[in-house]
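The passage that follows is intended for readers who have already worked through the single-chain material. We present the inputs for a multi-component assembly, then the predicted structure in tokenized form, and finally a short commentary. You are encouraged to pause after the input and sketch how you expect the pieces to fit together before reading on.
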Amino acid sequence: MSTDTLTERYVHEVVRRIPAGQRDDIADELRATIADTVEGHRDADPAAAERAVLTEMGDPVRLAARYSGRPLALIGPELYPAYLRLLKLLLATVLPLVTVAASAVDLLDGKGAGDAVGAGIGAFFVVGAQLVAWPTVVFALIERTRRDGEPLPGTPTWTPDDLPEVPQQEGGRVAGMVSAVWNALLLGLIVWQHTAEPVRTDGKRLQVLDPALWSGWIWPVLAGLAALVAIDLVRVGTRGWTVPLAAAHAVAQAVFALPLAWILHERLFFNPEFLGTVNGGLTVRDEFYTVAALGVLVVAGHEVFKGLRAARKQAA
Amino acid sequence: MSSEELIQSQAQELRRGTVVLACLALLEQPQYGYALLETLDAAGVAVDGNTLYPLLRRLEKQGLLTSEWNTEESRPRKFYRVSPEGSRVRAGLLREWRDLATSIARLTKEIPPA
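Having made your guess, compare it with the prediction:
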């Protein structure tokens, strides 16, 4: 039999993924079965019939998985909850610790704030990638080596005690207050650093943020923040989101976040004089601006989404 | 999804488990893969080859089927037939099947046909 027919290529693709002991037997049976099916095919042209039959049999990888009983998923449904819980735990605890520690070490070494932020960002991505990669590899290996239905050793089985508390159904008053205070603080800080010029150097007083912003981009940011504070207070008063309120909130978030992201992206954020005096010339890495700008947009987008979702839920 | 499509997909779920029982029933007589597929098809138990052929292997591995290569004809074929253990499992499955049919009949007695 020639070895370059479609059937031969198909059979080869299937059996090479099957344990060696069964290969020949499955290959022989598969050949006979395909030949039988081609013979019984309504298409008179044998080549077209062969093609149609193989198409019907489908992806050899899938067929081989069925023969060998191997999973076609990296991490199957039985392990997936434990995998997800572990990832969440690692990313919520280890990652922030390592990020802060990396920054702190740089600061303690007497390096500048820019270096420290850079080290933190570097640690965040490197350690974050590792924290995702290694559990994934380990779980995929366990998925491929364990026997069917065998529970994962060392993982506690789920009990009702693991249930989280239901989120408070008081219309998000606490969240609204926290958000109002936070936005008001941010607003106050920006104005304060402009009027009080808190940084002192060589008898001069400096602002932290670029003073040039006050003849331009800072105003929509401040207006957006003020609107956000007002909306948060209304929300606390009315005990929850309404659709018009959520829409106004979305506009306010956009007015606040888009100019801020632009300021960060264009590196118009810090007062160059301030950077020049701190630690004898501070350079802020490009990554900082990119990550900060993206962070502002992501957080604002998430807030808008949360508000709209809560409004829809309350309206329903 | 139209209700017709919903019926189709739910019916597929219903039929999935019946393929094993149908195989155990038909393979009282030795049969090879493709012929079994045709017989099942004709009997209204639709199953794809890429499901049936690995399934036969699995049932053989579980000891419910035995197999033998028949090389008398021009094309050697692997013939499967039910083992004594397979017969016992078939009897058990049939009992389950009949219980289920009785239960469903009782449950749906009051429901007028749509």
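Commentary: The radius of gyration of chain A is 31 Å. Chain A has a mean pLDDT of 84. How closely did your sketch match?
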